[in-house]
Design goal:
mainly alpha, 2 strands
């Protein structure tokens, strides 16, 4: 949650693989941050771009398969915190789409992915432009009331929030939430993602009570749909910790942060960036209380 202290807040965005993102990894409300570089399996740009350079000689179906595969691998790289790899894959997919002139769901996914990478890099105007393109293509190819469009609108809202355009972000988050509730049902985790991100906006405006209510509603949905110890529930727990800290509910903050950390350690292992985010969150709460030994 974006408060005047160094606590983390997490935005949730459903992708082909449901993505849970940390504010510090994606530069949510606090401006530009350094790109996280994962220590393993980073795909060199030249290798991927070399593969793309031979695409014009391949059949259109082969190019389409490449774009879909590159987009899917790009989102897996984001989920693993390998943003350099993700950037190269999404750039390759976008370049392939431009060469073929194809505009379809794979185009939307590639633009969304590259937009999220630009958001992570703190390049907010570029992120907004890419995500606006994704929304326009989704609406024109799939229709204005589809899951693809709702997800693209959700991501655009996140970019607007990162650029501190909270009014536009709120409008877009509400729109995506309403579309998801209509298409998927009010108890779907994607609806919880929209509620979580609306809570982020409330916190950014200083309305922590409002944010707390939205986080609790979002956690209830994910708990019923996925289980209270699911990895995605951990994002909301971490946000609840920050919100409770802002409200002076320190014992609740510590409990939520510890629970989020436990879930993520079991889901991702010790080396994942989201585990580091939880550790930082819990450390900030203990430090604020003067518990420096913790």
């Amino acid at each position: 949650i974006a408060v005047h202290v160094a606590l983390s807040a997490e935005r949730i965005g459903p992708l082909p693989l449901r993505l849970v993102t940390d504010r510090r990894l994606l530069g949510c409300f606090t401006g530009k941050t350094k790109m996280h570089r994962h220590s393993s399996a980073s795909v060199p740009f030249l290798l991927i771009l070399l593969a793309v350079s031979i695409l014009p000689a391949t059949p259109l179906a082969g190019q389409d398969a490449f774009r879909k595969s590159a987009g899917d691998r790009g989102f897996r790289a984001i989920e693993a915190g390998r943003y350099e790899t993700a950037e190269a894959l999404f750039l390759a997919a976008v370049k392939a789409g431009n060469r073929s002139g194809t505009k379809d769901a794979a185009t939307v996914h590639s633009l969304r992915g590259l937009g999220l990478v630009r958001l992570h890099q703190g390049r907010h105007p570029e992120a907004i432009d890419l995500l606006q393109q994704a929304v326009r293509i989704a609406e024109s190819t799939e229709g204005p009331s589809t899951k693809l469009t709702a997800d693209a609108i959700h991501d655009l809202a996140s970019a607007c929030a990162a650029a501190a355009d909270y009014e536009t972000a709120e409008h877009l988050y509400v729109h995506s939430r309403d579309l998801r509730a209509e298409l998927l049902g009010p108890g779907h985790p994607d609806v919880a993602a929209s509620l979580n991100n609306l809570a982020l906006l409330s916190g950014a405006r200083g309305d922590y009570e409002g944010a707390l209510a939205l986080y609790e509603e979002a956690f209830g949905i994910t708990g019923r749909a996925l289980g209270p110890d699911h990895a995605e529930s951990a994002a909301i727990l971490n946000n609840l910790a920050g919100c409770c800290w802002a409200l002076g509910r320190y014992d609740d903050a510590v409990a939520f942060a510890a629970r989020a950390l436990k879930i993520r350690r079991e889901a991702h292992g010790e080396e994942h960036p989201l585990v580091a985010a939880c550790l930082s969150q819990e450390s900030s709460i203990h430090s604020a209380r003067g518990n420096y030994d913790n």
